[in-house]
Amino acid sequence: MKLCVILRVLRGKIIPYLHDFISLFFPDLCAGCGTNLFNNEQSICTNCIYHLPVTNFHNDPQNRLAKQLWGRFSFVQASSFVYFNKGGRVQNIMHQLKYNKKPEAGFRMGQLYAHALRTSESWQIPDFIIPVPLHPGKLKKRGYNQSEYIANGIASTLAVPMKSNNLIRIENTDTQTKKSRFARYENLSGAFMCLDENALRNKHILVVDDVMTTGATLEACCIVLLELNNVRISVATIAFAE
């Protein structure tokens, strides 16, 4: 018994030093600015969090994202957490998230966003959260779905269930980068399919994506979900491209 107590105490003292020692050779770097993280910081440093260009869309039902989606599909609310500007710290974070194997940065941004949503008087907490899915081929190549990490950060903070397997991508479409909004939507038509429809009927679902550009991907996902009986949809992204 005494030995167990001693080992527990030693573990509590040794692990922090071991972490510091490993950090000398493999430092934890901020996804936003690249500086070393302190022990209490997760993926994004305090300075970058403080300087995030927050949109406050969640406090304005008639925000720019909502207006961009009006008339395209029915939704309860739409919001983005931060503005995306080229060369800024948000672009750095999203690049690390998507291309440099830093999915934990997405989880952290999801946590931060959820804290903002939770304090909003106008934002309605959903029944379920669904991330925009990746095609299995792209998922295998990247190793993870960045939107799922974001959604998980939001879900865990709001204490709302996440259903990552109820909406799947069945077509691996061409790159969207240089397409117009209409061409993007046409490219995505029929790309998504809903599974276990009974679990989603009569529910308020929050669909989560990483960056809002034209909204074609969100539109294609939400139209599929809205075919279910009495489903209400809200959408949220981490970044809003200006």
From TrEMBL:
Domain of life: Bacteria
Alphabetical list of Gene3D superfamilies matching this protein: 3.40.50.2020
SUPFAM superfamilies: PRTase-like
Alphabetical list of Pfam families matching this protein: Pribosyltran
Residue intervals of the Phosphoribosyltransferase domain: 147-238
Listed InterPro entries: ComF/GntX_DNA_util-trans (IPR051910), PRTase-like (IPR029057), PRTase_dom (IPR000836)
Family, per entry: Belongs to the ComF/GntX family.
Name used for this protein in its record: ComF family protein
Originating species: Daejeonella lutea
